[in-house]
Amino acid sequence: MIGQLRGTLLEKRPPVLLLDVNGVGYEVEAPMTVFYELPETGQPLTLHTHFVVREDAQLLYGFASRYERELFRALIKVNGVGPKMGLAILSGIEADRLAQCIQDQDASTLVKVPGIGKKTAERLVIEMSDRLDKIDGAPASLPGRVSLDPVDDARSDAIAALEALGYRNKDAVAAVSKVAEEGASSEQMIRMALKNLAK
Predict the structure, then answer these.
(1) How far apart are CA 36 and CA 95, in angstroms?
(2) Among 80, 94, 163, 194, which has the minimal tally of Cβ within 10 Å of its Cβ?
(3) What is the Cα–Cα distance from 116 to 110, expressed in whole angstroms?
(4) Which residues contact 23 (CB under 8 A, 6 or more apart)?
């Protein structure tokens, strides 16, 4: 089992990157969330990896954190979710946000992720719920929200809308957090956030 690689980044051609480890070039498939954070080629890089051996191929999947890798491993155990779909899911939503959606039983947000249909979203919520607590390397406890107040609801809607427009989750969260005001509707937050993002 290859659990981690540390080397020099040679190429990045999503979804595959090439990592030189002591003269051996490893082709690693990674979610887009990893590609967003990659250094320039020629720079050092450490990846947490998941190794898959099939009859016709040996595949390496790489992740920025151990938690992201463990979440991927939990995803591919879900009925109907293979490594390709697991990568697609983690490309469309950041690991912490995915975990929060599962914890909140929020299938409606998961449906917005490319490649996830309604049935898959519902299956993820059901099958992943009891696996989250067992995932190693989890971020310091996810907030266990049972219900959201109206401001949080509007903020979540605004973030989801910005993501649908193509903004990264991290950028959408930062932009909405800057403009979030008590009593502001999601539409108002979106308009103000878009103004800031356009600067």
Answers:
(1) 14
(2) 80
(3) 7
(4) none
